[in-house]
């Protein structure tokens, strides 16, 4: 599925592609919700009470989500640590997998001469565990979590702009493509003034939410991206 009318003419200028992980290149399969439930129980909270907020804010840094839900910094930090531990256990149990065609899409994008960066709302230890589980440690030249970009995750543009500065792959932010499965991914791309802001339908949010947040393209999956950019 491709919805990319007026922006296709800009796609060939893309030099830097910033890809989300869970829900975009990595199958989520409800792992975030399961890890959140474990974290909520760990701090004595009702998992069901915050689930709607967790779903609505998929893509945001997890510590920000817990600060919103629990208010108290100590409790938020404790919940975040429990979340990361629960998610790591799921990764160790082999419950994380690449989405179909994701690895091949990254390789094709790089073969086209584009620089690819992977980003996440998870903390660095969790990100590294996912990359190791998939054998993706050397797939791209740069991976970023919120802490790598000063601490602010999506919907802020910080990770996108950090990728822009660190890679020096693009001369203009309009040569950036930002790709994700949530409205927060789209907002981060819009706020970074990226030339392409593409939503994929393999994760948390549907086409209407992605478009409402500023998606210039809506794709069935990241596997379609190399073709769109050529």
TrEMBL record:
Record keyword Hydrolase present: yes
- Any one biological process term the GO annotation gives: DNA repair
Q: Which keywords, in A-to-Z order, does the entry hold?
A: Hydrolase
Which domain of life, per UniProt?
Bacteria
Record GO terms (molecular function): phosphoglycolate phosphatase activity
May I have one GO cellular component term? cytosol
Among Gene3D superfamilies, the record links this protein to:
HAD superfamily/HAD-like, Putative phosphatase, domain 2
Instruction: Extract the PANTHER family matched here.
Output: PHOSPHOGLYCOLATE PHOSPHATASE, PHOSPHONOACETALDEHYDE HYDROLASE
Q: Specify the protein name.
A: Phosphonatase-like hydrolase
What organism is this sequence from?
Streptomyces cyaneochromogenes
Q: What is the lineage of its organism?
A: Bacteria, Bacillati, Actinomycetota, Actinomycetes, Kitasatosporales
